[in-house]
Design goal:
Length: 503
Amino acid sequence: MTHLRLKGITKCFGNFLANDSIDLEVQAGSIHALLGENGAGKTTLMNILCGLYRPDRGQIYLNDRPVQMASPSAAIQAGIGMIHQHFMLVPQLTVVENIILGLGPSLHLNLAQKAAEIARMAESYGLAVDPGARVGDLPVGAQQRVEILKALYRRAKLLILDEPTAVLTPPEVETFFKVLRQLASQGHTIIFISHKLEEVLNLCDAVTVLRRGQVVATTTTRQTTRQELARLMVGREVELQPDKADRPLGEVVLTIENLQVLDDRQLPAVRGLSFQLRAGEILGVAGVDGNGQRELADAIAGLRPVTAGTIHLKGSNITDWKAQQRVKHLKLGYIPEDRQKMGLVMSFSIARNLILKTFRLIPFCRRWLLQRSVVAARATSAIQAFDIRATDGNLRVNQLSGGNQQKVVLARELAGEPELIVAMQPTRGLDVGATEYVQNALLAERDRGAAILYISTELEEVMAMADRLGVIYEGRFLDILDSKTATVEQIGLLMAGGTLEPV
């Protein structure tokens, strides 16, 4: 069993103080949550613990012995293993090959013997997986079990889990939590990093909250609530449940009929999907990542060709329209899932990012010249309206936090009162405060009369935001449910490809 104690951990990057004299104690055999806003210092602290960074000051103690984490290999030797949100696996290799990868050369490598050894270990920990299976063929839940086995095979006794449920269905989450509880009961110490407060309260024994690089609270989960944890993270009261009032629906804005779209590998991603979306309505799309959500959103925005079917917007067939045509002639806003790769030009200023779609149009451009005063005025207005934490519009967006970067995307895409908004993972990677802001901004657009397609893998979030909820599996809607009456169990079953019993 491993007892962890951090004393006075301090880390600076130039003038920025990422960790400020952090004290943290994690009891052996416990599951300890680490919470905080984006930029609160969680990742820096864990990178220090894993040997990726060296602290400027402070000491790490394992079982009351001072240790130095000079490198990741030193952390592994000390029994520390980290399971990242994005799996570090080679899809083309088998389970056993992935687990033993990087352990050093061997003159007498016996894969069958290693497979049997790993199978016994998997059974003892309740981590059912076929050692001979190719990782790329495994479902996401099984791939996560491989990641844990890889850490355990390296004799890790302290496991750090970074957003481990982001890609799991509700039934997979329940199974995963059983595994974690069993690991803790067998003496493993677990640090659980998540922004899902309900999961933290259900799973963890204790929780530490960071804010601006400092520990603001450590408590047991029995002695706190979601509301209290959110307040500690942000430093103010946070509305965790969106305030969504009923409103009458307007005319049909978007009609999708028998849509078929290929993915980047030219394989079918959207397969005969059909639905309608009306003004003043949020249609939520729930599903595990990789079931055609990205391809659907890109096709509507004109960023991906359609192989069959049609897209009608306000009665116009826009199936073959280019993205530029849709921007110029239609009121369509698109919030992409990756704000840094698709939503923003990171080296550009806030002001220039705000006009990416309209820089050729009046009033921003006259006689082929950018009107700098107009562009600057637009940035000042957006910074005030969307509470972007920046001194002025000349600041580059790569100097902003994730939440403020997302506000820049919102300010651009919601400009001009769009009739249709496609919001793809609009709160991904955001803390509770930034999530609250984004949701309220989209609900205001709904109340104005916009039609919104809200795509998210966060089940609780999409249920709270949506009026109707389509569950997507392998590129098709298995059902479209009323969000008021749908249950987590029903949606979880559909997300896994099941069917609902008739009432």
